[in-house]
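User: These chains co-purify. Model them together.
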Amino acid sequence: EVVMTQSPATLSVSPGERATLSCRASQSLSSNLAWYQHKPGQAPRLLIYSAATRATGVPDRFGGSGSGTEFTLTISSLQSEDFAVYYCQQYNNWPRTFGQGTKVEI
Amino acid sequence: QVQLVESGGGVVQPGASLRLSCKASGFTFRSYGMHWVRQAPGKGLEWVAVIWYDGSNKYYGDSVKGRFTISRDNFKDMLYLQMNSLRAEDTSVYYCARDATRGLGMDVWGQGTTVTVSS
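Assistant: Joint model of the two components:
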């Protein structure tokens, strides 16, 4: 299976600052990668698909980049509602696999 | 509005069976593939299974293969997960999720139902 590795595990950021989250795949995914935001007690939310395309309703402060095995999620100016856990997920191969998550905390 | 609502979770003993359900509304259910994803306490998201829009194909994660079965009823707009031979490590919140158009991620998620496997 494709192993997804996210870094860092925890990112401490102040509101208004920029956050950069990384995701590495054990084999090439082309651009078949999604990012999700997950808050405690809530349903996960699709943020980015095709590595760089924002899902409907996602603010433009969220940006995705990368292809192949290296991907990045950037939050340009963190708002209070952005503190959450973020997961990357590949949909290039079966089984689908998620990274272990990056917690973005204040 | 587009919505997925899971049900059927509970507390069961190791070796028992349980069937989860997911009711879809607000969209044409029969046109979409559907997933189950779980999250164990203190852990990340783990993909469990997928079923094609018409039920013609199914895939499973290695940890549940041979024990879990995904199915759907397109007349009732329902998705199911039959879980047999449950283990303590199956304890999780189970989410159903809609496969996005052209398979580009999972774009609609339910709130989850909790399964606890404990003696």
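The interface with chain A takes residues 35, 37, 44-47, 50, 59-62, 95, 97, 100, 103-107, 109-112 of chain B (CB under 8 Å).
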